[in-house]
Amino acid sequence: MNLELSPQDIEFRDALREVFLGRIPEDVRTRSALGTTTREDIVASQRILNEHGLAVPHWPVAWGGKDWTPTQSHIYTTELQRAAVPPPLAFNASMVGPIIAEFGTDDQKRTFLPATANLDIWWSQGFSEPEAGSDLAGLKTTARRDGEDYIVNGQKTWTTLGQYGDWMFLLARTDPQARKQQGISFLLLDLNTPGIERRPITLIDGSAEVNEFFFDNVRVPAENLVGEENKGWTYAKFLLGNERNSIAQTGTAQRLFAELVQYADARHVGVAALADDPDFRARLHAVKLRLLALEATELRVTAASEHGQPSPASSLLKLEGTRTLQELSALRLQAAGSDALLVREDETGLAGPHYLNLRKLSIFGGSNEIQRGVIAKTILGL
Fold first, then answer.
1. 246 with 90: CB under 8 angstroms?
2. Measured by CB atoms within 10 angstroms of the end CB, which terminus of the chain is less buried, N or C?
3. Residue 137 has pLDDT above 80, yes or no
4. Minimum mean pLDDT among 42-56, 123-137, 282-296, 300-314: which range?
5. In this predicted structure, what is the pLDDT of residue 369?
6. What is the CA radius of gyration of the chain?
7. What residue spans of 25-121 are helical by DSSP H?
8. Nearest to 13 by CA among 107, 78, 62, 70
9. 3-state DSSP call for residue 212?
């Protein structure tokens, strides 16, 4: 198996770097690296990427896709992260867009896909509920058919960046008599519709990036049903697979590691640089080895997918990728010292609030405990 990039792939990578480093404003990339990206940064970045055909390369070609090889897609994701470019909004690019492209009607595709790619519509995800998070199939929000509409009642929670949402893709139970995974439908909901209340949820790091939504007899046109009624669980599994493949963030971890090394060289504890502390150096070297293993594993998974064979090693990527990001945030916390107590991020990068926020990585997208079970069964044969 060849894990080296071909000359063609290197040329492809360099062309991407010209856009990522030359077209995305430096101040936008700086804020992205510090974890202080604004709504305006995300919109501006995605529109520049879309102008260069790089916002939704994994979509069908007819709707802006590029028909890249898995290796090219891997290079794209890694280089985007290394350059600290705000990625295309996941709810648009990786979630609802592919669902509409695959299962939507022609009218839905024409209406939503161009605006979704260009971030003219900011989508929110309406999946989790107070009693249906890990067990999403236990959701209780209902959508009852009434003539040409569905009437939606219920609650959604942990809606990331929902304060900016224009529309929501929503899972709701349309057949209350069906078994858990059955009887669920996938709806598109205009968040300006009467009967919707959204409330922010303040997190441990002081931010309010997640929200809860309440629906009281909200009317949704039946034409906004995606695919078939009661088949929403099938579409949700398609979407969640896309979400889990992007969580490892090896390119981000590589960039953070390089920044941490520079910072540790410059930071002094007494008369010596922090980088000279033997315990800190040992932890740095352990992270470096893990990063090398992650990159090699990503390339193996990519090589397998070139032949249409999904690899169970993707669970290893999710598990080790999130652990690596959390370890890097812990090292940055140690390096920042008392500066880590600052509420806002500054030149110290991953300070206290960001460290706390990254605790979520091992939970969402399929918890790391679940991934260990997948590894034990599919890789180790236990």
1. yes
2. N
3. no
4. 300-314
5. 80
6. 22
7. 26-34, 39-51, 70-82, 90, 97-103, 106-117
8. 78
9. strand
Which residue carries 């209350």 as its tokens?
A: 176
Distances (CA, A) of 132 to 11, 139, 140, 159, 364: 46, 5, 8, 13, 13
User: Measuring CA to CA, which residue among 64, 65, 55, 70 is closest to residue 16?
Assistant: 55
Active site residues: 243
* Cα separation of the two ends of the chain: 27
pLDDT greater than 60 at residue 183: yes
Catalogue the E-assigned strands of 206-351: 210-221, 225-226, 268-269, 272-273
Average pLDDT over residues 168-195: 94
Q: To the nearest 5 percent, what fractions of the chain are helix, strand and coil?
A: 50, 15, 30
pLDDT in tens, 251-264: 888 888 988 888 88
pTM of structure: 0.81
State the Cα angle at 316 between 373 and 87, rounded to 5°.
125
Query: Among 125-139, 173-187, 293-307, where is mean pLDDT lowest?
Result: 293-307
Helix boundaries (H) for 52-105: 70-82, 90, 97-103
Closest of 86, 2, 1, 78 to residue 44, by C-alpha: 86
Q: What is the mean pLDDT of the chain?
A: 86
Domain(s) of CATH 2.40.110.10: residues in the chain? 123-230
- The C-alpha atoms of residue 325 and residue 375 are separated, in whole angstroms, by 20
Domain with CATH 1.20.140.10 in the chain: 247-378
From the list 56, 206, 215, the residue with the least C-alpha distance to 129 is: 215
Measured between alpha carbons, how far is 340 from 349 in angstroms, rounded to an integer? 9
Tell me the fold of 123-230: Butyryl-CoA Dehydrogenase, subunit A; domain 2 (2.40.110)
Q: In the predicted model, is pLDDT for residue 113 greater than 90? A: yes
168 residue type, one letter? M
Alpha-carbon distances of 249 from 24, 84, 160, 298, 317, rounded to whole Å: 20, 11, 18, 10, 9
